[in-house]
Design goal:
This is Type I restriction modification DNA specificity domain-containing protein. The protein has 382 residues and is of the alpha+beta class. Helices cover 37% and strands 19% of the residues. It has a four-stranded antiparallel beta sheet with strand order 2-9-6-7, with helices on one face. Strands 4-3-8-5 form a four-stranded mixed beta sheet. Strand 17 and strand 18 form a beta hairpin.
């Protein structure tokens, strides 16, 4: 029976005196990244003499996160250095490095990594090099077939990367439209409290818990605020009995939600589908006073602008705990352009979002196709 040790050999190499290779970090989801890119600064100590060299196409894993798939191949620099805690490996002669790297990240092997992890703390379970190299493999094809499979998967993955890049550009497009329309020309500035009322949410009553499944009473948490919208995929729900106890703390279409604890300053406009939902105590709702001064989706976007986020950060800094007080939200100074201009932005943003939604669906379909392609490839059916 073939094992991972038949494809990889461990090695340990330290940087030469005076060498200054790029410091890399090994992540669960994105493989190797430059440490400076991930943390905006170099975290490694000044003395990196005991760090390990990892050259292009060489492989390493994080022994404390291998169970989560933290194994990667260096494809970003010709020579880097990583923490001495990470075991490093070279691909043995007679095997294709790209094929091996993809094989190590198949769902089947990641499941096997979980089986060799040991320790009592779930997020810190450790895996040994010995157990890793002794994991069995089946149906490892000859080198020409490995190269063919790797080329097909690399090509398919490149197409997925282009789609993700297009999505990133679409996300940036809405920001660019907003900046073009509202930051180049001055507009009257008002205190948010002059045009809206700020109301808090409510925690679950003592001893209460969420409903087991969906009900007619959604409960919006800060974790549901992502990408400038309320994401409905993981909403919690309340039983009618629990909802009656906090029935006053609901949201309506046209309100804007802003997080006031934890990840402070996240915003989203409330869609019609969530009118009547309950709101967490870690967020507040911004309710229009007359319904004419602003559009909710426009205000949610304005509150994400740099000037408003700077104001929000300053308001949090004035209190002793990490929470944004409701009266300080009222003090936020908001530029207020004509409603017709707000409507134009909302219309343009909606057109971009329609294109983005199609692109997301196509990206999800490509991900499913790639997973199927990869599964067939490593079963010898490609």
């Amino acid at each position: 029976m073939t094992s991972i040790g038949d494809l990889l050999v461990e090695f340990k190499e330290q940087p030469g005196k005076g060498d200054e290779p790029t410091v890399l970090t090994l992540t669960e989801r994105n493989g190797f990244v430059r440490q400076a890119d991930r943390f905006s600064k170099r975290l490694a100590t000044e003395d990196v003499s005991k760090y390990k060299v990892v050259r292009r196409n060489e492989i390493a894993f994080n022994p404390y996160l291998l169970w989560a798939g933290a194994v990667a191949q260096n494809t970003i620099v010709d020579e880097g250095i990583i923490s001495p805690l990470y075991p490093t490996f070279r691909v043995r002669d007679g095997h294709d490095p790209r094929y091996v790297a993809r094989l190590l990240l198949t769902p089947q092997l990641i499941g096997a990594y979980d089986g060799i992890a040991f320790g009592s703390v779930p997020r810190r379970r450790r895996s040994s090099v010995h157990d890793f190299l002794n994991l069995p493999l089946a149906n490892v094809p000859p080198l020409p077939e490995q190269r063919r499979i790797a080329a097909i998967l690399d090509h398919a993955d490149a197409l997925r990367a282009k789609r993700r890049q297009a999505l990133s550009h679409l996300n940036f497009l809405t920001q660019s439209i907003f900046s073009e329309m509202f930051t180049r020309e001055p507009h009257p500035v008002v205190a948010l409290g002059d045009i809206a009322r700020i109301r808090g949410g409510k925690r679950l009553p003592k001893g209460a818990s969420y409903a087991i499944g969906p009900t007619h009473h959604p409960y919006v948490r800060v974790t549901d605020l992502r990408g400038g919208a309320i994401q409905s995929s993981n909403l919690c729900f309340l039983t009618p009995e629990v909802q009656r106890q906090i029935a006053r703390y609901t949201i309506d279409e046209g309100d804007v939600i802003i997080s006031i604890a934890g990840s402070i300053g996240l915003t989203a406009a409330v869609p019609a589908t969530l009118a009547g939902a309950n709101l967490t105590e870690n967020a507040a709702k911004i309710v229009p006073k007359d319904g004419q001064a602003y559009i909710g989706s426009w205000l949610a976007r304005m509150l994400q602008s740099r000037s408003l986020q700077d104001q929000i950060a300053g308001k949090v800094g004035q209190v002793t705990i990490g929470k944004l007080a409701l009266f300080r939200i009222e003090q936020l100074e908001v530029p207020l352009p004509p409603r017709a201009l707000q409507e134009e932005f909302v219309e343009r943003a909606a057109r971009v979002e329609a294109v983005t939604a199609v692109a997301r669906q196509e990206s999800a379909a490509e991900d499913l196709l790639f997973a199927s392609l990869q599964s067939r490839a490593f079963r010898g059916e490609l």
